[in-house]
């Protein structure tokens, strides 16, 4: 387990999956990140797929490859390249196991930087192939305790999106019983003037994926606490909201997505998959987001 720490916060990150497991407020002695039995994870990294692929597989030039839900990064041990106590750099390089699912040479580097306002993520994907392009999805899946510090209840909290004048839209979801997209984009009915008042009914389909070009950030807050969580989203076209359906769970995942789950019953060709990032040989693609805390 890797630790970052300053006067305000203490962060713990597992080399298995490069997963953020704790983000402590040291002054008031509480954790912003979920650690509970209802869902055994905390903040998985999603790569090179997001969501569940149709039949847990996808196609490369018509050849089928297995792909687990959210890809394989969460089950890989990352190499620690640097830990200064404020900055942690972790690498995942293609190996024999990953090539069974994703037959390309790649390097995924994740840099965590702890500052006075919170924690930032920097993702870098490098195509190390000599002559082959590939495509990928990348996402982050942090689960935040709601209520924050036990103050209020889940339904006291709101999400405020920036800019506030966007007409928020979401992908229609169907459960089979796993959630897939139908291919349709509809108005986000739970939103009003850039605000969502959290309720459990909105997660009956399992998740809410918001589609908005121009979405800059989202803030989780409540009138019952002075604490809040803000995520910057400029490098991510989509943001997913999820809590464990039917469980009245006291957590909310706010997930920056660069990529999308599959459409139901439509197997994906890797190079044609909607919302994937294409990367030429030798090319690097960077993504960043910040978790700002009060």
TrEMBL record:
It comes from Limosilactobacillus ingluviei DSM 15946. One of its GO terms (molecular function) is isomerase activity. GO terms for biological process: carbohydrate metabolic process. CDD domains: Aldose_epim_lacX. InterPro entries: Aldose_1/G6P_1-epimerase, Gal_mutarotase_sf_dom, GH-type_carb-bd, LacX. This is Aldose 1-epimerase.
